[in-house]
Design a protein that fits this description.
single chain; Rossmann fold; 3 domains; three-stranded mixed β-sheet
Amino acid sequence: MARRSNKNRLQQELRERRRKLARVVMLFVILLSGAAVATAAYIKLTDEGTLPLRVVRIDGDFQYLDKEALKTVLATQLNKNFLAIDIDAIHEDVRAVQWVDQVTVRRKWPDTLMLTVQEHKPLARWSNGGLVNRRGEWFAGSLNDAVSLPELDGPQGTASTLSSEYLYLSQELQALGLQAAHISMSGRRSWKLGLENGLTLQLGRKKVHARLQRFMKIYQQIIEKQLEKIESVDMRYTNGFAVRWKPGNEMQNKNKGDSQDV
């Protein structure tokens, strides 16, 4: 009886193992079939003939940006399936186009690629090449010389500082009908301002805004009356200023003030 009982138990365990193995095999077959169906569907959906990209829409107000340059960059994506286009790659490539500031890229079902592009708004030229936008950021743009923009000049990495100072000085000078054409900051942070009327203004490193205010007070009383003869005005004096006359002028260069304080 004991032998028969052990034999029945072994047969029962064997049948249970076979049932478990059958279930595992069945599950594997189901998973494999599902993967095959998913792979086939993916291949079909990403095929160029399925869901082709038919429309590329570029929105934005462009004054300087070359729209054809954008189309050239996008050309490598136009032969791809709607689902296969690489949104991140398009964003990176378009962002690298000259004059592109910001870009958003998205798909629109079932066949459209939509781009919204913002171009840089130039504030000034940078003396060593390139331009500075209205946020004070340098970018590798270029403009025809006929486009009138002020020039900023300073050490590398100071575009933001120079643009902020330019905006302040320009706003103040508007009260006198003057416009800044060139502004520079030396490595020692000494400021020099060139006006559109040809006058150069030395403001130094200290109390730059206060010195500008002193210049504005004397401009109409003294400087403007002799403007054609004056080359530059140096405001780096504690209680006064110095005038440099243009070459050939009969008047000699002299200062009106105490000690110079740069």
